Amino acid sequence: MTDTAADQTQGTPSPDLKIIETRVYRGPNVWSYDPAIQLVVDLGSLEHFPSNTIDGFTERLLEHLPRLDQHHCSRGRRGGFIERLQEGTWLGHIAEHVSLQLQQEAGHDMRRGKTRQVKGVPGRYNIVYAYADEAVGLAAGELAVRFVNHLVQPDPGFDFTTELERFIKQAERTAFGPSTQAIVDEAVSRDIPWIRLNKFSLVQLGQGVHAKRIRATMTSETGSIAVDVASDKDLTTRLLASAGLPVPRSGSVRDVEDAVQLANKIGYPVVCKPLDGNHGRGVCLNLKDADELREAFPIAAEQSRRGSVIVENFVTGKDYRCLIINGRMEAIAERVPAHVVGDGVHTVAELVDITNADPRRGVGHEKILTRITVNAAARELVRSQGFELDDVPPEDTMVKLTLTGNMSTGGISIDRTFEAHPENVEIAEEAARMIGLDIAGIDFICPDITQPVRETGGAICEVNAAPGFRMHTNPTIGDPQYIAKPVVDMLFPPGATSRIPIVAVTGTNGKTTTSRMISHVFKGMGRKVGMTSTDGIVIDERLVIRSDASGPKSARMVLQNPRVDFAVFEVARGGILREGLGYQRNDVAVVLNIQPDHLGMRGVDTLEQLADVKAVLVEAVPRNGFAVLNADDPLVRKMRRKCSGEVVWFSVSEPGSEVRDYIEGHCRRGGRAVVLDRSDLGDMIIMKHGRRSMQLAWTHLLPATFGGRAMMNVQNAMAAAAAAFAAGAPLHDIRQGLRTFNTSYYLSPGRLNEIDVDGRTVIVDYCHNAPAMRMLGDFVDKLGESLNASSELGRPSRIGVIATAGDRRDDDMRELGDVAAQHFDVVIVREDARLRGRKRGESAELISEGVRTAMENGARCRQVETVIDELTAIRHALSRSNPGDLVVLCVDQHQTVLAELESVSHLAQAGARSGDEGGDPDFVRSDEEASPSEE
């Protein structure tokens, strides 16, 4: 602690630690490669009270959470965090470690975290820590803050022990069961991606067309007919008997007297159980006469969904569960019913409490063993053995509390996998095949599994669909069996693919067009492409969701679609800051440019900070992946240091330039690049790989470049070519894809669409910031020159309708107006429907200021007008234009605009104008002049 901090620790600390903001990252993000939770906290007065200045703080903390002494912290060794506490560390940092330890207390082994001060805001910190379950991670952070405040100043209404128990129970409710967790862990160990599809146990393994699903131990390969058969115990028995397999004599009945009649025919003792029950519920064993059967019948009937009850002869012996996966026996466990063993000191009830105190026992399936429940049936069973719950059984006397050996009723398991006789193994495997289950639990009752059941007596009493794994993965006695491996082997055989290729595109401008170009290339190769962009989600050329889909939720939707075998994601800055990427990694990351847009939002104030956000895609490239980077952009060029895979450069720099020389050296070392070679014949896109150079296409032959005039689309095409090449597309398919991609509304809606409206050349684009306007302005200049040369009506005018989002900085808006004024004769300023925090007309006025300032400095523009509504602005632009003019519309709702252009394309000029050139240059539409669409 510094002397200054020590001087400030005067007075009494108050419990001022509070959470200002919470954010959950579900994939690689600006803080971590792995999923993480970010808490923005304010320390208040505690900023002046490090841990060593609060009397007894460290001691009280360790008293409640002693395992904090295992935390390394920045020291890199056990006990490092304790050293930091004793030296003095801030309470935000302590809350981070408490959040991690609370998750460990709940069984989630989380160790990664960091705490950083918010730049320029004293007392405010970013706490970032890992999580396994989102709900548990958030609850851990909230409890950690309350607990730290309690340690600063005790709160009479806060009991940490009670709160910790409540937290652990919440974690147990949301956690996967042992079976699901075992399969997920095995998938993770094989680098198979997974997605939790609901709050329970429905999980997707793999992506897109390769995806498989599991729900506990049922898989997407499990047949519904097989499950129905296994659920019908009477049908199961008849099918197994027809195959010559040993089964009890049995039948199904719906009436108690029918059950007695059947039992008389079979012979006592008998078993009474529900036709379609599970987990041993409603099973009554060793019924010796009709009276016992009559008492047991309603118990079984209550647990039967169909109302039918099975009566079968009681087979004596030990209870074995044989686990069959994909036709092979993988594990066998002997199940011992819930019981206690007398010690000559404690009563039966006390022995149950002692047994339930085992930390391995929990409620239901939350832990590897289940607590024993003492109910009326248990009391009766204890009484039948000559004891009451208050009696003290003799030492080493076993007192059963259930008759069935199910783990869910408190039983224990003994591993017998390698002891079973081969004939018994063959019988169990044949039983699973007869029912048709890919994963089956075969319940054997026999004297000894090591001896042939046909000789010693015994039978298959049940076949279970979705059998639990915990008796095999966590046996009470014996070695655990790693049975998740054959399950994953069945779903993803060795060598099978679980991932689909992912190409992720980011940058300030050009993301959507580049994503569409890449998608078009691979669609031409026959791939089923899932693409996300600001326009929506497209699955195999069909727009399935129309909205801004450049965030992580949209990416996950594509990865869940079973038709998709190739994914192209447009990744926006906002989604990365909000949730991270939403997926684990991308095979190819494309970064187009870093330009001043979205600055001053969510803590991103500089281009360098914006570059760090965009670089998350590059950091998510694996060692065998690629990062396609714009060598002409210095900030993008620096991202090469963050790439674990191979860098592919693209550049329009002239040969002999510093950038081009660097690329040539990169290629001589075996690297890849896409460059532009200029000659008198035109500009040629060249693909380079090592010392090989391959001509891809003349830029003027690519429709999207408007004869090479649209330089932004030349760069987009080069980036798309580089990405497709890195993703494995052959050269001729890349060339064919770019030659057939155009900026028609069908292929590229709202991006440089050219439409003829009564002799006017109308360009519809999305341009909304100054850097994009410079590129668009360059295209407008070149296209305007071409129109001048072909015009017979004199010099055509250039009219531009422009706007930007209201959450941009004032100076950015003025700069947009300034740049537009350099390229248009008339600028019409409109506003988006969403004002994003601005007052109506405020954004338009700032843009207009920029235009007027440029006009005063000699810019091309001679008139600026303000028409707030988008459709009204477009009608106004068309009405004041003449045939041969160039009208550029920078739009927000391109669907509405294109429909409007079609409807007015044949209007006569007479009477269509909403004003003349002599009108007020600062005209603002009033509310009374609202368009029909607004009304």
UniProtKB/TrEMBL annotation:
Residues 237-492 form the ATP-grasp domain. Transmembrane segments: none annotated. It catalyses: [L-4-(L-arginin-2-N-yl)aspartate](n)-L-aspartate + L-arginine + ATP = [L-4-(L-arginin-2-N-yl)aspartate](n+1) + ADP + phosphate + H(+); [L-4-(L-arginin-2-N-yl)aspartate](n) + L-aspartate + ATP = [L-4-(L-arginin-2-N-yl)aspartate](n)-L-aspartate + ADP + phosphate + H(+). Keywords: ATP-binding, Ligase, Nucleotide-binding. It is an enzyme of class 6 (ligase). Residues 909-935 are annotated as: Disordered. The keyword Secreted does not apply. Its EC number is 6.3.2.29, 6.3.2.30. It holds the Pfam family Cyanophycin_syn. PROSITE patterns: ATP_GRASP (PS50975). Coiled coil: none annotated. InterPro entries: ATP-grasp, CPAse_ATP-bd, Cya_phycin_syn, Cyanophycin_syn_N, Mur-like_cat_sf, Mur_ligase_C, Mur_ligase_C_dom_sf, Mur_ligase_cen. The keyword DNA repair does not apply. Homodimer. PANTHER family: CYANOPHYCIN SYNTHETASE, MUR LIGASE FAMILY MEMBER. Catalyzes the ATP-dependent polymerization of arginine and aspartate to multi-L-arginyl-poly-L-aspartic acid (cyanophycin; a water-insoluble reserve polymer). In the C-terminal section; belongs to the MurCDEF family. NCBIfam families: cya_phycin_syn, PRK14016.1. This is Cyanophycin synthetase. It comes from Kribbella orskensis. The lineage of its organism: Bacteria, Bacillati, Actinomycetota, Actinomycetes, Propionibacteriales.
